[in-house]
Design goal:
The protein is α/β, with parallel strands linked by helices and 380 residues long. It is built from ten helices and 24 strands. The chain has two domains: 191 residues, FAD/NAD(P)-binding domain (3-Layer(bba) Sandwich); 126 residues, FAD/NAD(P)-binding domain (3-Layer(bba) Sandwich). The protein has a five-stranded parallel beta sheet. It has a four-stranded parallel beta sheet with strand order 13-12-11-17. Strands 6-7-8 form a three-stranded antiparallel beta sheet. It binds flavin-adenine dinucleotide.
Length: 380
């Protein structure tokens, strides 16, 4: 009987893993099935651009998979049964059996952090949410206010992009931290502050948002701010699927894995990308980023191929080279880092940083999901 490999999630990590597995295991006794909620590959790192009304293209998964033996199932996985070794889906076939499962479902906005966010807040965590925000912002009258909550990378990029695309709207950025750009070198932080000033983004440091209302937000110290849209951007967490299946996870719902990306509780399950708490160079837990997702996607395929050939694989290396922040289309900050994510002294700012980031985003798709041979590029 064939060995059934099932990959859940066709983002940066899962699509790369499925294509590489299919290429490495072109044998009659292995099947690779990829289950994804939509029939498109979503360039998630551009979702703030989608929200800001920019042109948006999605890559059809069937095109990405053409020429490979990967079987694509378009549907949601609703549950994982680790005893029966099946995943349940909301489309036919309702259950798909696996011998090895690769969990690659990405992450979601932390909307349940405060009351009112689920009902009233917007986010850029997925294409549907970013499209909802796009429509909301497009219909706002001049002088309207957008409140972005969260001073991390996604909050900064979203606030900047919206401010640049809609100079007639007021953009406020709320962060519980003392300042924006924690972890960046002083020169990078200074540039960041200047860029936000130039774009007209008003930063509210040391301001913890306690609730979201239909017409604004309330802070922990009891102040209320009016806003026509509140964008929740306080970080991400993994979906509940793995935890609900009894697979060991951390507090963010990310699957706890060993150095070969294998679940510490279920050896037939592997996890990659945002949905995995991998071990980075230096020992910290992996950062939710493409820089971690791509080596994980590539690495998990190599690990599984080795084990199926009765070889014991080495650890998967998850290292970093930079932190990349776009500040609209013509400005940015690139903080170069050591492999363990500590900042170096080298920083790029301005147009050079914007061009660098654009090149990285393009190469992420080229070297990641498109990088494995087998896809039909003629129609792209
Ligand atoms: C606005 C924004 C900007 C970002 N900018 C950067 C950046 O500049 N640099 C960087 O490194 N990172 C950036 N990130 C983070 C980066 O996008 C993620 O780290 C990356 O997408 C993780 O890849 P992944 O494959 O784990 O998950 P994803 O790319 O999220 O893919 C997960 C896939 O799983 C599917 N899925 C989820 N649940 C199910 C289910 N139950 N059943 C079936 N399919 C399912 C989804 O539909 C999706 O296709 C950004 C994120 C956002 C939101």
């Amino acid at each position: 009987m064939s060995h059934r490999l099932v990959v859940v999630g066709a983002g940066y990590a899962g699509l790369l893993a499925a294509k590489r597995l299919a290429r490495k295991l072109r044998r009659n006794d292995v099947t690779v099935t990829l289950v994804n909620a939509s029939d498109r590959f979503v360039e998630r790192v551009r979702l703030h651009q989608l929200a800001a009304g920019q042109r948006w293209t999605e890559l059809p998964l069937r095109q990405q998979l053409s020429g490979t033996p990967v079987q694509l199932v378009v549907g949601h996985v609703t549950a994982i049964d680790t005893t029966g070794r099946t995943v349940c889906t909301d489309v036919a076939p309702r259950t798909i059996g696996y011998d090895t499962l690769v969990y690659a479902v990405g992450s979601q906005a932390r909307l349940d952090d405060v009351p009112g966010a689920v009902e009233h807040a917007y986010s850029v965590a997925g294409p549907e949410q970013a499209t909802r925000l796009r429509h909301r912002v497009a219909e706002m009258a001049s002088g309207g206010t957008i409140a972005v909550v969260g001073g991390g990378l996604t909050g900064l990029e979203t606030a900047s992009e919206l401010a640049e695309s809609y100079p007639d709207l007021r953009v406020r950025l709320f962060t519980g931290a003392d300042d924006v750009g924690a972890g960046l070198a002083p020169r990078a932080r200074t540039h960041l502050r200047r860029a936000l000033d130039r774009l007209g983004v008003s930063v509210h440091p040391q301001t913890v948002v306690a609730a979201v209302r239909e017409d604004g937000l309330d802070t922990r110290d009891g102040t209320s701010f009016a806003a026509d849209a509140v964008v929740w951007s306080t970080g991400f967490r993994a979906p509940e699927l793995a935890r609900a299946a009894g697979i060991a996870t951390d507090e963010s719902g990310r699957v706890l894995v060993d150095a070969t990306l294998r679940s510490v509780s279920h050896p037939e399950v592997y996890a990659v990308g945002d949905a995995a708490a991998g071990l980075s160079v230096g020992g910290a837990s992996s950062r939710m980023s493409c820089q971690a997702a791509l080596p994980m996607g590539r690495g998990v395929a190599d690990v599984i191929a080795a084990r199926l050939a009765d070889r014991e694989p080495g650890p998967v290396r998850i290292g970093y080279a930079f932190t990349n922040i776009s500040l609209g289309r013509r400005d940015g900050v690139v903080q170069f880092t050591h492999a363990d994510d500590r900042p170096r002294r080298i920083v790029l700012t301005g147009r050079a940083a914007a061009a660098f980031k654009e090149a990285v985003v393009r190469s992420t798709v080229r070297s990641g999901p498109r990088g494995e041979p087998g896809s039909d590029e003629r129609n792209s």
